[in-house]
# Entry
Amino acid sequence: MREPADTARRTVRGRGLGILALLILCGVPFAHGQESDRSRVLLRLDCSSQISRQEITLFANGTVRLRERLSDQHELELSDLGQPTDPEEEDLHMYLGELSPEELEAYLARFAKENLSESEETSRDSLGGAWVEECRLDLALPGQASRHFAFGRYDSLSLGTAQVVRIARELEEIVERDEGLEPPFPPDYEPRTGDVLQRLDGVLFEVVRYTDDGGGVELEGVEQPVTIFIDQSNLRARFRRLVRRAQ
# Structure
C-alpha cells in the first residue's frame, strides 16, 4: 500500500536531513564551499609605487589577468608622495589572456623547477622611496606549500625568486597576444631623440642623445632632475614601455 504523498515527502525529507547531519559530522566538504579553478590563484605578482601599479595573476584554469595603473605625473602632487594607496580606490585597467592546457602545464613546470627553499621571504637591501616600486609575490603551486615574498624593485633576489619573477612577467605577453594589445616596444625599436620611455619603477624619461660611441643612450627625467646613461642592449630590460614616439 502506497504512502500518502505528504507522508512520503516527510519521510524523504527526514532521511535527507539525517544524511546531511551525517555528512557534517564526518567533515565532508561541499561543492559550494570548494574554490573553483576560475578563482584559485596560483601566482600573483603585484608591484606598485605612488605613480604606478602592475599586478599579474595566474588562475588555476589558465586565465591570466593583468591590472595596471599609471598616474599622470603632471597631476601628482608632492604631498601625495609617501601616502599609502588604497587598492579599492585605484583606477586599474584590466586585461585578460588565456593559457591553453598545454601552456599552463608548461608554465607550472617551469615555476616548480625553481628552488625557493633558501629564498628569503622579505628582502629590503635597496633604496626605497615613493617612486620605487615595492613588490609582493604570492605562489601557490599544486602540491606545494604556499610561499609569499616581499621585495623592492631593485633588491638583490635569490636566483630562484628572480627566475620566478622573470617567468611571471612573461605572462604579460599572453595578455598582449589575446587582447590584441600593442607590445611595449615595436619589434624593431631604435631610440630617437625626444622619445619618452617609462622605466620599470614608473618614472618617465626622455631620450636626449646617443653616446659618442653610439652604443649607449642618454636620458633625462621628465619630472625629476636626473640624467642616466643606458646601454642600448639593456634598454628593454630597464624600461617597461615606449610612452610617446618622437616625430
The longest strand covers residues 41-48. The helical segments are 5-26, 101-113, 159-179, 235-238.
